[in-house]
Structure formats: C-alpha cells, structure tokens
Specification:
By secondary structure, this protein is mainly alpha-helical. The protein has two domains: 49 residues; 214 residues, MetI-like fold. It is 87% helix and 0% strand. It is flat and about 75 Å long.
Length: 269
C-alpha cells in the first residue's frame, strides 16, 4: 500500500515538474519575442531601414520618458489617466451588474428594454462625446462618464446572458423549498455567474481604457490621451509612441489584476 501511494506521489510530482517547465518555456518565449521585437526595431531605426521620425525607436522613446520624468510631468499624466480609467471601470462594471440583476429580477423590464439595449450596444459611444461635454462639462467627469458608457451596455448584456443560462433545475429545487427570489439570486444566480462576471471584467479593462483615451482626446488638458494628441499636433511622434507604450503597460497590469482576482475567486469557490 505504501509503495502504491509513493508511486502515485512520484507521478504527481513529475506532472507538476512538467507543468512548471512548460510555464517557464512559455515565459521565456514571450520574453524572447519581446526582446527580438525591441532589438529589431532599434536596429532598423539606426540603420535607416525605417524612418525613426515616423516610427520612432526604443532609445528615443526611453529618452522621451526620461525627459518627462525630469520635468516632473510623467506621473502627473499617468495619474490622471489611471484614476479616470479605474473610476470608469469600477462604475461601469458595478452599474452594469446592477442593471443585469434588475433585468433578471423583472422579466417585464427585460422585455421592454431589450430593443433599447440592442440599439445602444450598436451605437458608437464616441459619437456621444460632444454631447457629454455640453451636458457635464469640460473635465474629468465627462471622461469618466465616457468610460462608463463604453463598458456599461456590454456589461449589462454579458452578465444578464450569464444569469439567463444558469441551470433551471437548481432554481426549481430552491423554489420547491420555498426560497424567495432574493435567496435564489444570492445562493444560485450570483455564484453560478461568477465566471461570466469575471469575463465582463476582462472585457471592461480594454473598454475603460478606450473610453478614457477618447475622452482625453476631446476635452482633457492632462493625461496620456492628451500627450498623444499634443504629440501628433506638434509632430513629436516619440511622445506619441512613448504614451502608447505606457498605456499598453498600464492596461496589461490592470488585466493581470483581473486575472489575479479570478485566480483567488476560483480557489475560494
């Protein structure tokens, strides 16, 4: 019996080692691709294969970031954009989830609002930018509202679809025991829909950044979106590329935060 347990333990350890080695290979390949891209970009810029004025190059982008830091404005612009994105992301996700609960709670409201949600989902939210400026004003509130609107409808539709796909047998089982609608929501619908809500969070990471950057294009005097617009207007494409790369890094970190949350929720479940 002991030999059998020991054999199984060894097999399990071999499997864990294999998984770890595979993870290392994946990470090493990712790093290698990034290094090849950066080195190749720098090489082509220095040798004239590409025009560094148009495409910039890593060394020029680095010098731009260093100069922004030396001027004391780098973290100011990052802070503006990051705060607006986080607020838009959280508010859009929470409000969208609440609206999805309302639609699940009342089939009548769901049927009434269904065509409006379809139309609003198809409507380019960017077109509402000038209207938001008139309604809300020229400043961060309009930018945060833009980020909220971009992610709101997608969250409602995604989360409500997840609610609708919960196993009806589980719901009928609770109903047979006299459970209230609130108990069904709390004990069945929400726990079963956690993967759907996590998926909505992943989608909203990108949508929130899109909404904020579009808002900063229109009304902001600070933030990474402002730097992109300003750099394009004065033909400082190094500034544009530096801002885009910072945006990519921040978006990746935010997405990893959602993955971290998903991992811990999966353990909890």
């Amino acid at each position: 019996m002991r030999e059998k347990v020991q054999a199984v333990s060894q097999e399990h350890q071999l499997y864990l080692n294999k998984v770890k080695q595979e993870s290392i290979r994946v990470l090493a390949t990712r790093v290698a691709i990034l290094l090849i891209f950066v080195v190749g970009w720098e090489f082509m810029g220095r040798t004239g294969i590409i025009d560094p004025f148009i495409t910039s190059q890593p060394s020029r982008i680095w010098h731009t970031l260093v100069n922004l830091y030396a001027e004391g404005v780098l973290f100011k612009h990052i802070g503006y954009t990051l705060l607006e994105t986080v607020l838009g992301f959280i508010s859009g996700t929470m409000l969208g989830t609440f609206m999805a609960i309302v639609l699940w709670w009342s089939p009548f409201i769901s049927r009434v609002l269904d065509p409006y949600l379809v139309v609003l989902n198809a409507l380019p939210k960017i077109a509402l930018g000038p209207i938001l400026i008139v309604w809300i004003g020229n400043g961060p509130p309009a930018i945060i509202t833009m980020a909220l609107l971009v992610s709101l409808i997608v969250t409602i539709i995604t989360v409500y679809t997840g609610f609708s796909q919960v196993d009806m047998d589980k719901i009928r089982l609770l109903q047979s025991f006299g459970a209230t609608k609130w108990q069904i929501l709390r004990l069945v619908i929400l726990p079963a829909s956690i993967p759907t809500i996590i998926s909505a969070l992943k989608i909203n990471v990108g949508l929130a950044w899109v909404g904020v950057i579009v808002g900063e294009f229109l009304v902001s005097r600070a933030g990474l979106g402002y730097l992109i617009v300003y750099g394009g207007q004065v033909f400082r494409l190094d500034l544009v590329m530096a801002s885009v790369i910072v945006l990519a890094i921040l978006a990746a970190i935010m997405y990893q935060g959602v993955l971290y949350l998903e991992k811990h929720i999966a353990k909890w479940q």
